[in-house]
Amino acid sequence: MTTVSSINAGSRITASEIRNVAPLAAYKGADETFSTAVGTLQNDDALFLSLLANAVYKWELWLNYEGGTTGSSDLKVGWTVPSGATLKGSADYTTSGAVVEVYWTNATTLAPGTNGAAAIRGFNARGTIATTNAGTLQLQWCQNTGAAVNTTVHAGSILLAWQVSG
Known about the structure:
Elements: H1 15-21, E1 24-27, E2 32-34, E3 42-51, E4 56-66, E5 75-80, E6 86-95, E7 98-105, E8 121-130, E9 135-143, E10 151-153, E11 158-165
Antiparallel strand pairs: 1-11, 2-10, 3-9, 4-8, 4-10, 4-11, 5-9, 6-7, 6-8
């Protein structure tokens, strides 16, 4: 990984050096709501990044979301990754009134609880992804269980990735 201290005045700065200092970033500028397709993950409209082949990235995800009372709508989250990629990480969130930290891969989904309309909760995750092919890292989510109250991922949510190898 390139560090800021290895970039000197008058030296040529390459694209790979910039990629290794500044993160790729995706920002959710508008609320997104689901009340249909319960349990069927769908690509998030804004939280996705283009990754290079044969690279390793450190990633971070912050979501703020809300829905019905716990167990009546909730949130289901997962990933779509480039072909052959391996994503590993952990996530912190609240479910059934308890804060949990769990291991998360691109082959698993998580179901953070909601706590009622206007009771916004946070979901924080971080980890690494190793690619073999170029492609898109994209958050997928949906309402976990059917309810009269929608599940919403709010504006201000963000996905970041720093290339650390490759």
